[in-house]
UniProtKB/TrEMBL annotation:
GO terms for molecular function: nucleotide binding. The keyword Repeat applies. One of its GO terms (biological process) is defense response. Belongs to the disease resistance NB-LRR family. The lineage of its organism: Eukaryota, Viridiplantae, Streptophyta, Embryophyta, Tracheophyta. This is Putative disease resistance protein. InterPro entries: RX-like_CC, Rx_N. It comes from Carex littledalei.
């Protein structure tokens, strides 16, 4: 009986660790997506500044919020790159270059949480823009 209970707990723990590992491994893809999104945000901000709804205070506030999110994304990316660089001794090994997840799980978890938060905030801001009649900048955001 005790062996079955231990086996069950170990199985659940293994499943949870596997799920967390997959989530952390996906951070690199999320970072790449954020970098692409940042490019689109900047291009659309330039467009919004020059063309859309001149004099409309709600739209100006929306543009400011999107701009703040762009700065936030840049800060997260820069912080991540600096922390990886500071924590990685210069090495040519494939492991050190390709697997920061293994070497820095706390950092990767923190980054994963921050990227989820940014994505949720972007979705809310984009929805607000749609509500204001601004073209949906976040159509590709998943």
């Amino acid at each position: 009986m005790a062996e079955a209970a231990v086996s069950y707990v170990l199985h659940k723990l293994a499943d949870a660790l596997l799920k967390k590992g997959e989530e952390l491994h996906d951070v690199r893809g999320k970072m790449e997506q954020m970098q692409l999104e940042l490019g689109f945000i900047k291009a659309n901000l330039r467009d919004a500044d020059s063309k859309q709804h001149k004099g409309n205070e709600l739209v100006k506030e929306w543009v400011n919020r999107v701009r703040d999110m762009a700065y936030n994304i840049e800060d997260v990316i820069d912080t991540f790159l600096v922390e990886i660089e500071e924590n990685n001794p210069k090495s040519n090994s494939l492991l050190s270059r390709m697997l920061p997840v293994v070497k820095h799980p706390k950092l990767m978890n923190k980054l994963s949480v921050k990227l989820k938060e940014i994505t949720q905030n972007l979705k809310r801001i984009y929805q607000r823009g749609t509500d204001l009649g601004i073209k949906d900048l976040g159509a590709d955001l998943q």
